[in-house]
Amino acid sequence: MTTQDTDPTAEFRKNQSWLYDSKAGGYVRKTAIGLLTLLIGSFILFPLYWMVVTAFKTTSEIQQIPPTVFPNDFSFEGFRLVIESSIQAGGYAGVVQNLFGVTVTSAIDINLLGLVLSSLKVAVGAGVIAVVLGTGASYVLSRRDFRGKNLLMSLLLASLMFPGTAIMVPEWELISYLGLFNTHLALVLIYGAMTAPFVVWLMKGFFDDFPDSILEASRIDQCTPFETFWYVLVPMARNSLIASFIFAFLLAWNELVFALTLLDNSKFTVPPGLLTFVQGFNTQWNVVAAASIIVSIPVLAGLAYIQRYFVQGLTGGAIKG
Amino acid sequence: MSYVDHAQSSYENVARHVPESLRVYLPILPVMTLVGVFILYPIAQAIYSSFFTKSLLQPDQAEFVGLANYVEIWTDPDIHQVLWNTAIWVTVGSLVAIVLGFLMGWLLDEKLPYTSVASAIVLIPWVLPRVVGASIWQFMFGGSQGIINELLVQIGIVDEYIVMLGSTELSLWPPIIGMIWRLAPLFALLTLTSLQGIDEHLYEAARMDGATPWEQFRYITIPMMKYNLAIGFLLMLIYNVRNFSMVWVMTKGGPGVSSSTLPVMIYRSAFVDFEVGFASALSVMLFVVLLVFSYYYIQFYDKVQGEMS
Q: What is the Cβ-side half-sphere exposure of residue B106, based on CA atoms within 13 angstroms?
């Protein structure tokens, strides 16, 4: 008996359109899918490609009309300028001179290293706050029933909806009132507050699915609730916790509006720093592209790591912009 | 004393002073304080400020004016353009992102090799720092060195390079295209997950019953995905209404207000014109729009949860 002949699917496809029926139809279908993939793929990937090739072009080649699709002179000028000016603006020129005997002078002014360090500080701080505070709350919200629970959940979800620009002015006044203007702590607190509700949402999903029998077992072993939480739940929630942290980290790493209004140049994080450089007089696009690639690396590393949690997080009420 | 014992004893020290029935709120208190102070309080403050005229330069001289700010919104010379722009952002931006995202998700679901790698790559536009993404597009649309102009000339749509970001007729579109680029991958991912969540047996059964591919799509795929799609749809709307970075980086809302959306107008009236009351009234308007979307978002979210469990 051959399965080929009795396969009802094949039987049925015979009566379908020629697209599914004939060999030619198969080719047409495959070609159409291929073309569609190519079209959409190039829309998504071309800007990224363009950023990379621009970073490796010389300034004169960038100004050339028409633009070259592939760099004629493959050059590291952009990267070199970014690194040199970071060394200079960061005040490391003397150190480098002593260590390597190289004099670093740079005509442009973008302290990428400083920006990255500021962003790291803010993003790690916000991530830690959001995860630590959010996890404890999500556990209670998942495991216990009490009055006002739905209201709390709704408030948390609603707080994720509001765009930064709309609450910018009161936030500005609040931060000035607290004396936190132009400090990274202000951003840590705001970004922490912006992502904590999201962490609560994500972790609640995890705790909702957590099997009762394990908690039962740890109770029988005479663990206190704290010990259960720390030695049983936290290790098992490790992946979700890391995902939450990276979500919070990414938001803080990317956020523009608050950083732009609550800090001044000396304390800038990456987004406003890059923005001022892009909009500076006579923008050097190879430098911008090189700087963009450098600041995107942490983000892409994070993405590679949490890729499979993304979906879980997205359907879990992720409303971060 | 271990960290855990320490945490436990300090928790118990605090908890001792709290009535038994309120102890369950203790772990929630820190989060609610943080969110309350830095998100909910500013929202309330924005609503309150919208009834005053207040300048950011002289914050002490606030004057209660009732609904005057709301009236002023409708007499503002720019508002019609801005609302119209916002509407275009929301409808065109969301629809194109959804269609494109759906196609992408569907192509990714074709069980080709490298699907997981491809879906990670496709997500890059969404996770890339927003300023970076917007700068790339600004550069590509730029007048003298922009590749887009060259492409249009090559294809034969235009004869010579045109200024897109600086023209009142065209400046709205480059940021929308950038935003579609940023959002389509997100919708693709949602589509991919919901497609992968559909039981293969349903299709098998349908084929047995003689359903054509279109009927399978219409009567299995769409109904099985509808809540996830609804969530994705609302997310696209919310993101597009809220968008600030893409416009601000690429055109600053200009020239004039030709590419301004509501968030850009709020930012401008607060931090360029320093009119806090007026900016707050605009914010409240934006809140109301977003609340409507959020309401449906939460409803659909609950339904998805209900259906999955």
A: 15
